[in-house]
Amino acid sequence: AKEQGRNTYQFYTEGMQDREVLRLELDKDLSQALTNNEFVLYYQPQLDLDSSEIHSVEALIRWHHPRRGLLPPIEFIPLAEESGRITEIGRWVVMAACRQLAAWKGTPYEHLKIAVNLSGRELDDEKLVDNIREALDAENVSADRLEVELTEEIFIQNIEHNLNQLSRLRQLGVHLAIDDFGVGYSSLGYLRDFPVDLLKIDRSFITDVAERHDDAVITRAVINLAHNLGIQVVAEGVETEAQLTFLKNHRCNLVQGYLISRPIPAEELEKVLAEGILVPGA
Ligand code: C2E
Ligand code: CA
Ligand code: CA
Ligand code: CA
């Protein structure tokens, strides 16, 4: 079978049937993962280009699988979305983020905000907003420390329900970010009809932004569009100094990517923040 580049292990070298068996096995393991406390949040810092400081981090889930090691979300989030388990996983993510925010109180990290990812499927849950409110209350964390990242898919289907969920979230005081902006095929109308706080330009535009005219034009246009609407812009997947320089020159607000830091566990994040080594050129 064909090599797929990433570490997709046996999935592609075994037959369809074996793959289905693996999926079922993984789904079964997934049902145990929460009880066994096997999920962990990694955090990737976002560098504020105005202040050269880090005020926010994105939480990215990982699964310490008992036999397969540390699994990235691509290996289990799509599966969890299909089976519906994503709802309880999402609940754990929000709870874990709130717990982390509470743990940072009274430390040098207490100003940090955490952005969590919510898939469209999670918005289907009528109890989502109540669950988030309860998690914030339980940890005595203010809602404006929490940000929610959603992709444009939520503006394509179930629009009325989703917009209602979003406005309830916003009433709560949670900040809203549009993830993977520019690849979602949805209309821009929601930017007019709905107040988002942040646009995250998809990595596919950033990769060659310093070399390719078209990517540069699109990225500049997105930044201008957002700023004219009073929305801040994050560039994702920033890996090079050339990309960083371009984004600085064009007044992008925040950058996130391997150039600053990979996603890392909380203890490691605290260490690198304390050492102040995340700011390139500083
Ligand atoms: P995303 O939200 O678009 O997250 C960005 C992904 O790009 C992350 O992959 C991150 O590790 C990776 N990344 C960050 N900087 C760079 C860079 O400079 N270069 C490159 N090549 N990649 C970079 P990760 O952690 O594997 O997450 C993949 C996706 O899984 C996320 O995409 C998000 O859609 C989903 N996901 C992660 N955590 C959660 C979660 O708690 N809940 C839900 N529903 N989805 C999640
Ligand atoms: Ca994200
Ligand atoms: Ca993204
Ligand atoms: Ca994505």
TrEMBL record:
It is found in: Membrane. Residues 23-277 form the EAL domain. This is cyclic-guanylate-specific phosphodiesterase. The lineage of its organism: Bacteria, Pseudomonadati, Pseudomonadota, Gammaproteobacteria, Pseudomonadales. The chain holds residues 468 to 749 of 755 of the full protein.
